[in-house]
Amino acid sequence: MVWRETVVKYKHPNHLKSGWQILNTLPPFFGLWYLMHWSLLGPYWITLLLAVPTAGFLVRIFTIQHDCGHHSFFRGLRANDLLGSFCGILTITPYHHWRRTHTRHHVTSGNLSHRGHGDVGVLTVEEYLARSRWGRFRYRLHRHPLIMFFLLATFQFVVVQRFTYGTPRSWRRERRSVYLTNLGILAVFGVVWWTVGLTAFFLVHGPIMIIAAAVGSWLFFVQHQYEDAYWEPGETWDFHRSAFEGSSYYRLPRVLQWFTGNIGYHHIHHLNSRIPNYHLAACYDEQPAFRHAVTFGLRASLKCAAMKLWDADKQRMVTFAEAESRTVTDAPTGARRAA
Asked: What pLDDT score was predicted for residue 335?
């Protein structure tokens, strides 16, 4: 494949660039956090305004944790795991547990036979139409933007990730990372209780966490669930097609690209997750084949929120209105086989 040599060229970490990324991310985050705490002396709307860039830096911290999880930020595995675990306390995301589930996402993305591994839940048209009225309502509620990107995203980060429910007993390292992350969070609570107080902490960190969770979940959603996405049953699923067709190039303004750690080049990331985030743009620029990916900008991406179900006959995501204009007996047979 024409892009293979380019991918190999850029998959090696550069420790100077990694170190610089740490310096231009962690200190500004803590500095803005302190500034938000200081701003509590004035009107609270100032604190809320400051929460936006601070949340941006928290998203950037998550992208560093993300690279560490792929062992692409440093050459050494231990260095990646140590930094990733530290970032996991700040993002309240157990590093090793998230790393394993996210790895499963990479090897099943776009596979209808293996949904539910670190991805956003999606039903086929037939599955949706076959549900009861209550079942359809629950799915519609789950896919509502305000519910998905604010309520459920915050609940996932703050509550769900505190427990090992559903985690296999054999995942000992992953279960331990949940407990250790919780201990780290409790230690942070102890420090802030002793210094700034829990009320001030929640007034400052609450908005940061809600905004960062919403942005992170939106990025994950929009780069896999758009009209011309890729979904195939297990027997016909193809890894490379899934990367090129099932992962988008999200063309963001330069400042947002910086805060999101170049994650918009998602098709390249899915082709080879060992490429550090700071090499993705150069990799894209060098290889013309990467320009054939599904591409959209910030404004066009908002339409993705309307895409709710996979239509196997039309081979695209559709809206609820499109799906409900059909009956259960008219539902696509291809989706029945996939399910």
From this structure: 44
Locate the domains of the chain by residue range. Answer: 4-338
pLDDT digits (tens, 9 = 90+) for 235-284: 999 999 999 999 999 999 999 999 999 999 999 999 999 999 999 999 99
For residues 270 and 243, what is the distance between their CA atoms, to the nearest angstrom? 5
Residues in the chain: 339
SS (H, E, C) the chain: CCCHHHHHHHCCCCHHHHHHHHHCCHHHHHHHHHHHHHHCCCCHHHHHHHHHHHHHHHHHHHHHHHHHHCCCCCCCHHHHHHHHHHHHHHCCCCHHHHHHHHHHHHHHCCEHHHCCCCCCCCEEHHHHHCCCHHHHHHHHHHCCHHHHHHHHHHHHHHCHHHCCCCCCCCCHHHHHHHHHHHHHHHHHHHHHHHHCCHHHHHHHHHHHHHHHHHHHHHHHHHCCCCCCCCCECCCCCCHHHHHHHHCCEEECCHHHHHHCCCCCEHHHHHHCCCCCHHHHHHHHHHCHHHHHCCEEEHHHHHHHHHCCEEECCCCEEECHHHHHCCCHHHCCHHHHHHC
pLDDT of residue 1: 65
Residue 104 to residue 94: CA distance in whole angstroms:
16
State mean pLDDT over 168-190: 97
Confidence of residue 325 (pLDDT cuts 50, 70, 90): confident
pLDDT digits (tens, 9 = 90+) for 36-67: 999 999 999 999 999 999 999 999 999 999 99
Residue 119 · residue 223 · CB < 8 Å: no
> Quick one: which of 174, 157, 160 has its CA closest to 215?
157
